[in-house]
Amino acid sequence: MKRVTRRTILAAAPAALTLAAIPVRAQKKNGPGVTDTEIKVGNTGPYSGPASSYSPVPKSIVAWCKMVNDQGGVNGRKINLLSYDDAYTPPKTVEQIRKLVEQDEVLCTVGTLGTPTNSAIWQYMNQKKVPQLFVATGATKWDDPKGHPWTIGWQPNYQSEGRIYATYVMKEKPNGKIGVLYQNDDFGKDYLKGLKDGLGDKKSMIAVEASYETTDPTVDSQVVDMKAKGIDVFVNTAIPKFAAQAIRKAAEIEWKPLHVLSSIGASVGATLKPAGFENCKGLISDFYLKDPSDPQWKDDAGFKEWTAFMDKYLPDGDKLDAGYVAGACLAAMGVQVLKQCGNELTRENVMKQAANIHDFTVPMLLPGIKVNTSPTDFAPVKQVQMGRFAGERWELFGELLTGAVT
Amino acid sequence: MELLLHQVMAGLATGGIYACMALAVVMIFQAIDHLNFAQGEMAMFSTFIAWQVMQWGQPYWVAFVAAVVLSFVGGVLIERVLFRPIHNAPVLSSLVAFIALFSILNSAAGYLWDYTIKTFPTPFGHKPLLAGLADTHEAGMIGVTLGLLGLLYLFFRGTRLGLAMRAAAANPESARLVGIRVGWMTALGWGMAASIGAVAGMLIAPVVFLEPNMMLGVLLYGFAGAVLGGLTSPGGAVLGGFAVGVIENVAGTFIPYVGRELKLTIALILIVAVLMVRPSGLFGRSVVSRV
Amino acid sequence: MSPPTDDIAAKESVPFVAAAGAAAPAEARPGAATGWLAGRHLLIAAAIVLAALVPFIFKSFVTFQLTQVMVYALAILGLNLLTGYNGQFSLGHSAFYGIGAYTAAILMHHWELNYVLTVLAAGGVCFVVGVLFGLPALRLQGLYLALATFALAIALPQILKFGPLEHWTGGVQGIAIDKPDPPFDLPIDADQWLYYFTLGVLLLLFLGARNLAHSRTGRAIMAIRDHPIAAAAMGVNSALYKTLTFGVSALYTGIAGALGAIVVQYVAPDSFSFLLSVSFLVGLIIGGIGSIPGCLIGGLFVLYVPNIAEDISRGLAGAIYGIILLIVIFVMPSGAAGFVRLARGWLAGYRRPRPAAHSTLRQQRRTP
């Protein structure tokens, strides 16, 4: 046996160090909420109250995690997603998030919904250094790696979509008179700003800015007003109910402007069918998600995967509701981040991996749209594609576009 | 001028919705002496019942009648089960019961029928009238509302039952003394109000699309219209509803700069201003209490 | 007519007060045992001591929740002064709460004013707004007044979102505020300090309300609620008191709003919608109209019951909430305070007259 002298130890040292250095991944590190069998993750959303129509988003996130668990979980652990109701009121969101972070001690949050609600917890999450992953809102402010390194958005933001509409309108109808219908809150105003920024010097093309509140019964009078003022380009950024009303009224009063819908109001089943397919010919919109009611995705693998998920885990869910699609995408992205963490499930690593997604595909994103993030790019999904409605389905055209807003 | 005409017409069209709701609100107020905050949700729930019946394959009129009848029964049950036990409590306690009812119906509707909008058919069709300023359904809605108004007027003024109901609401103690079954009058009033609400819902849904949150705004506007017209006057309520629709549209379009975003605020301020001049509403009778 | 001394006033106001049943029962029976009074004071002292220990027993998050409970209790107390004690029905207190919150937020954000001063400023602003609103409201009663206050509740979010004011109000994006640090380098964290600060303000304002209720002004206010014509006949200046009550009520709720903004660290227009007014009303009724301690029960209810409903069924959270409301109102038709009164009565061996049947708000109906 060799005697263990200083020389042998010194000789052995580099080897030992190398051995110690290699499998940093294999070294288990459990952050808050993580055990060898479970990962606790948090979420808040409007299960009750006037915004409860968005409840499909958190519901589908919960269901997707259940599916992942049934398929074996992530890194050998089951995901325990705690989802709480905030009724879309910021004070309640603050309370529920504090409960998740301080009482339940979750690793991170995924898909918290709403702009004012997420704004309320923005400072807190960044102060407490808890990853606020993939917030379910299109506000522009979430892409801020320097100022808020613990918060990351997910969908193409509303301002960038507004810019895309501006570019399209300037190309198709450079001398048009624009009328904008927008919801009088953060998302509506963001669309309007994006549109104005995109038009730049030609901002004066906008002749009518008509807002509505969600408590308004109809937007018929706004539509009538636009026709009376000679508007020939109608940018309709309303949610499905009001978008459908506007489409139907426009047809009724025989007004045929260049009608641009936002992605929010473009669902075949939730907006166009109630408005009447015959009234929707020629509608333009932008997309990043596959519309489950659009027959062109019938044989698409991603769509089939999502349908199977809905049939098994949310059989009562209305497949026409885009909220179930958004939630599934959010959850899939969250699961990917956890997977990328391997065995090092700490908050720091979660955020590091969230800023490190490369060309990840999600079943219900449009073909060609990939998720990409980097330490300076906190906008996971940036691309959209335009489409024209041809009578019973959307015909996508052109290339993938980005609205490029920082 | 033409723009003004357009907006007035559009306002009358939306006002028709508010008038319908305002009528239901005043009707129940006359029957039970309370403002029913859950009126809108009851109407919405009844409309969903009608929709469900149609989903099961029945024609429109079967669904219509089913909804009206079931709503009547529902209204009576609500009165007997929910409000009877607390009718001796402070009046504000019944407010809590209304809020509870609102919450339950809204949540249940969302749970049972989800939140995507649904089309609801109308027997009047959607053909445009008056060069697109109104359509056949809106005209039909106004017609039905006025018709209901007429029927109610005849019922309350011309029938013994109507008189008994008014007596029971106005002065329960005296009514009992002359032999009126006050409890059942109140229940009847609830049933009728629920049925009228169902009709209102089934008239409104074709315009706004059926979904669980469709009635909150309508109820608030209807309430404003009812108060403007005077809570003691069904005719006034209907006029008030129309007025609210027109005021809101005209204010929104013509008051420069602020009108656009503060439409609802301005409309309400105007209504309050009217109330300053006529504190019991335009057509309401002032309350005279004996000291 | 020379003003009666306080003793005689107490006796003469018995019919009003007993009919309301709202104010401290000891008042209604001038000969009541002082032993009972002392017992009550002991109870209050014990409660305060317990409250002071809370931040050291519970986690930071629970301290935060209880601070919010106190904020809501204060807001409900404001509503109580107007609706419970003075009989003016208000659906608009979310507006005063919001004005208070935004006053604090704007002052802290744009002018970096000290948070204590912002709370005071919020109270002042709301008092003025309340009085200004109360003046024209004098002409309205019952449901007509309700509509006017409702207009206020609807107007506020719209005004807050209004374009030209966006520079001050932050528009739809709202304003985020920093949490104040404990002063004098006390060895507690910011949450605990806020708890004590709120507790201090609460106790102060509760004491103020109690003194008001037991004073001649308070009796005048209640007299206006119960028998407005008789009160006027007795020389009570109805217009003055009603307007002042509006102002004080708005002041209380405005201070609550400012505290709420500081606790949550964020204000946004849609947090202050009409539905918040409804929550305050529910809290008021559940706690017991006209009861000051009842406001705490109301605050607890408003904060915790939606959480309980959610635990039972997330999909039907709203329905469960409604069912809980119904059960509570069936068991305690006059609110928690009424229930406690009844319970005390049974314990004492007889039933006290039920105050509910003579509530004035009911009397505003048509006479043929």
Q: Which characteristics define this entry?
A:
heterotrimer, A: 406 residues, alpha/beta, 4-stranded parallel beta sheet, 12 helices, 39% helix, 16% strand, globular, C: 368 residues, mainly alpha, two-stranded antiparallel sheet, 2 strands, disordered N terminus
Mind explaining what this structure looks like?
The complex is a heterotrimer of chains A (406), B (291) and C (368). Chain A is α/β, with parallel strands linked by helices. Helix content of chain A is 39%, strand content 16%. Chain A contains twelve helices and 13 strands. In chain A, the strands form four sheets. In chain A, strands 3-2-4-5 form a four-stranded parallel β-sheet, sandwiched between helices. Chain A has a four-stranded parallel β-sheet with strand order 7-6-8-9, with helices on one face. The longest helix of chain A is centred in the C-terminal third of the chain and has 20 residues, at 322-341. In chain A, 59% of the residues are buried. The model of chain A is unreliable at 17-25 (pLDDT under 50). Chain B has one domain (2-277): ABC transporter involved in vitamin B12 uptake, BtuC (Orthogonal Bundle). The radius of gyration of chain B is 19 Å and the shape is globular. Chain B has 291 residues and is mainly alpha-helical. Chain B is 75% helix and 1% strand. Chain B has a two-stranded antiparallel sheet. Chain B has helices spanning 2-32, 39-55, 60-83, 91-113, 136-158, 160-170, 172-177, 182-208, 215-229, 234-254, 258-261, 263-277, and strands spanning 128-129, 134-135. Chain C has 17 helices and two strands. Helix content of chain C is 71%, strand content 1%. In chain C, strands 1-2 form a two-stranded antiparallel ribbon. In chain C, α5 (60-84) runs antiparallel to α13 (238-264) and α6 (93-110) packs antiparallel against α7. Chain C is mainly α and 368 residues long. Chains in contact: A-B, A-C, B-C. The interface between B and C is large, with 53 and 59 residues.
